[in-house]
Amino acid sequence: MTLDVVDFAQALIRAPSVTPADAGAMDVLQQTLERLGFQCRRMPFGRIENLYARRGTRGPNLCFAGHTDVVPPGDEAAWSSGPFQAVIKDGILTGRGAVDMKGAIAAFVAAAAQVASKADPSGSLSLLITGDEEGDAIDGTGKVVQALMGEGEVIDHCILGEPTSATVLGDQIKVGRRGSLNAVVTVTGRQGHVAYPHQAANPIGPLVRLLARLQNHVLDKGYQGFPASNLEITTIDVGNTATNVIPAKASAKLNIRFNPHHDGASLADWLDQERRMAQIGFAGDIALKTSLTGNAFITEPGPFVEMISAAVADVTGAPPELSTTGGISDARFIRQMCPVVELGLVGATMHAVDEQVPVQQLRDLQAIYGRLIDRYFEAAG
Q: What's phi and psi for 170, nearest 5 deg?
């Protein structure tokens, strides 16, 4: 069976799967994969549709991971065509999800279709697709990974189709990601009149001093392949509209993006130590709440990274840069099962009005994924 990557990308885009809605996107994907001989399992959690599909029973198992959910289109009148019409004009496909990341899903499935037309490979191909990457990521890839691990399913290596390319296709791949820790500091004092401060406990001073200590602390000077970890204060809230009232409460939120020098637990402990120090001598209460989005990780250079780099060079003529920049992705969950590397389309228009991809770039990404699959099973054979 042959599959046209552009037609398939259009079919996926035309399902308006804004998180948490599926809008038929998983049906489009599952029906195509089943025609290619994949055994498909729906793995719903909460309101979220997830899909695990596998073709073959032997190892090694090369998995493609991605998401069918997309962010809202915003002002639809600002689009040159309907965000879910998947219009092609002058060789450019426009639509929400074209880059992030229905185009990459289409490219991998089209590459898998080519493999399905050949002799059985020396191993298995699989796809792990969620509908909860752009949202809270609570009922998506993380839960699927835990369920698969609990069943004893083995995924040996994974390629994640996030739009990692910066300016031209394949100019960089993500071999790691920084971790992310959120924190909320709430200082509760005692309200009073500004002329009688001894009758009150102003929460603003302790909060400002604590934030200054946190901001001025050097977490590290970087890690091989990673920039220095950074702490950013994102909001300070008091809510006091009067100039002659000492407020009862003040709070702040902050985020730490960190490299493998740290993990979420060690950073949370450090923040709590600073909180306890700030509490000394203050008549009120200082509370801290932390939440870990994901720990830092890296897929070290080795045969799998080299194989992906070679597949890119086969098609583009140049190997990619190995990068750890950007935010977080579902790779943070998949790394619990196996090494994971991210490779996808140019991300310049992701989440933007008129998100778009040249159709030739879709075909080139299909070719890269196809070379990766070939190289992977050649090595396995």
A: 80, 10
Identify the pLDDT of residue 119: 61
Contacts of residue 83, Cβ cutoff 8 Å, sequence gap at least 6: 16, 73, 76, 95, 96, 355
What's the CA gap between 208 and 190, in Å, rounded?
Answer: 17
Residue 232 annotated among the catalytic residues of the structure: no
Task: Count, in order, helices (H) and strands (E) of the chain.
Answer: 9, 19
Residues of the chain with CATH 3.30.70.360: 179-294
pLDDT digit string, tens, across residues 242-300: 999 999 999 999 999 999 999 999 999 999 999 999 999 999 999 999 999 999 999 98
Which of 49, 100, 132, 133 is labelled catalytic? 133
133 is catalytic: yes
DSSP letter assigned to residue 305: H
How confident is the prediction for the chain on average, in pLDDT?
Answer: 96
Quote the CA–CA distance of 275 and 264 in Å, as a whole number. Answer: 16
**Residue 85 structure tokens:** 């019409």
For the domain covering 5-177+296-380, report its CATH number.
3.40.630.10
Q: At what angle do helices 204-216 and 264-279 cross, to 10 degrees?
A: 140
Topology (CATH level 3) of domain 179-294: Alpha-Beta Plaits (3.30.70)
- Full-model pTM: 0.90
Query: Both tokens of residue 256?
Result: 């730490």
Please list the residue range(s) of the chain that carry CATH number 3.40.630.10: 5-177+296-380
Which backbone phi and psi does 279 adopt, to 5 degrees?
Answer: -70, -25
Cβ(132)–Cβ(139) below 8 Å = yes
Rounded-to-integer distance, Cα 218 and Cα 228, Å: 9
What does the alpha-carbon distance between residue 345 and residue 291 come to, in Å, rounded to a whole number?
A: 31
- pLDDT tens digits along 85-117: 999 999 999 999 999 999 999 999 999 998 866
In the set 22, 49, 69, 330, the catalytic residue is: 69
